[in-house]
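Long-time lurker, first post. I've been practising inverse folding by hand and with some scripts of my own, and I keep getting stuck on stretches where the structure tokens seem ambiguous. Below is the full token string for one chain I'm working on. Before anyone asks, I'm not after the true native sequence, just a reasonable design that respects the backbone. If someone could post their per-position residues I'd love to compare against what I wrote down in my notebook.
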């Protein structure tokens, strides 16, 4: 019996510590930032070959908002939202005085609905420390983002006018750290802001606006970081729906298929947080 008990303990440990099968999930966070560069080309062929660049533009610290859902219909339809968190402010009206998430060089926006959302290849917790799943890896990619009302935008210039167009490709890969993921029924969920991140956001955008000086094809590579203006103003934000002057809560979730479900009590906060973010 002692041998059987040890065997069961080893099996239980293996189930907890083994990589989780991909079964969908959700990421809702405004905590990250990014910096990088973008290079402009005259033709799509040049951009794809990295040939004959017209100019390279540096992108300083920017705030990032992510709302990505895959295979959690009880929470929200599949969505891919990657954009600047333009609504945060300390001046009362949404976006006022916000130069990191709103206007300025490097503002971007991908806002895709269930029929056009990006391809999610990974949404998984890891880093079990005996109490929490502490890391989360997300990978999502796509192309197009130019359907009616997609609002695909990329602004490698100070004025954010005539910045709409087509994302010929985009790819976001990140690992978030410092999470407190716990299993609630068939979900692993973390409700705290991450404390670290590594990752990149890259792609190819075509400006189709009416301003010839902005038209062209822009490749870009961004490195993710924790430099975030809205978070630095936590407690002082006063835009619409910013209760307590704080940025919206972060939420990371992974659906866990059988046999991993252990039936812990559901917290329920995830649903409210996700729906509040998308109004």
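-- Answer (accepted) --
I ran through it position by position. Result:
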């Amino acid at each position: 019996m002692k041998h059987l008990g040890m065997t069961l303990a080893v099996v239980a440990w293996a189930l907890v510590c083994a990589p989780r099968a991909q079964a969908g999930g959700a990421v809702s966070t405004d905590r990250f930032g990014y910096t990088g560069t973008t290079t402009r080309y005259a033709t799509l062929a040049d951009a794809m070959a990295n040939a004959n660049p017209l100019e390279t533009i540096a992108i300083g610290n920017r705030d990032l908002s992510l709302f990505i859902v895959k295979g959690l219909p009880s929470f929200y339809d599949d969505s891919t939202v990657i954009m600047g968190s333009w609504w945060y402010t300390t001046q009362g009206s949404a976006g006022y005085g916000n130069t990191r998430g709103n206007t300025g060089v490097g503002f971007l926006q991908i806002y895709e609905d269930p029929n056009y959302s990006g391809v999610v290849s990974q949404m998984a917790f890891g880093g079990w420390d005996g109490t929490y799943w502490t890391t989360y890896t997300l990978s999502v990619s796509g192309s197009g983002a130019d359907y009616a009302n997609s609002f695909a935008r990329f602004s490698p210039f100070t004025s954010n006018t005539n910045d709409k167009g087509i994302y010929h490709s985009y790819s976001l890969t990140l690992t978030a750290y410092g999470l407190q993921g716990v299993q609630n029924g068939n979900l692993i969920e973390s409700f705290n802001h991450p404390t670290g991140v590594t990752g990149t956001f890259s792609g190819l955008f075509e400006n189709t606006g009416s301003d010839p000086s902005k038209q062209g094809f822009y490749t870009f590579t961004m490195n993710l970081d924790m430099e975030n203006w809205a978070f630095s103003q936590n407690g002082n934000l006063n835009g619409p729906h910013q209760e307590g002057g704080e940025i919206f809560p972060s939420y990371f979730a992974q659906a866990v298929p059988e046999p991993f479900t252990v039936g812990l009590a559901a917290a329920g906060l995830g649903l409210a947080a996700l729906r509040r973010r998308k109004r």
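A couple of notes from the structure itself: The mean pLDDT is 84. The two ends are 56 Å apart (CA to CA). Happy to go over any region you disagree with.
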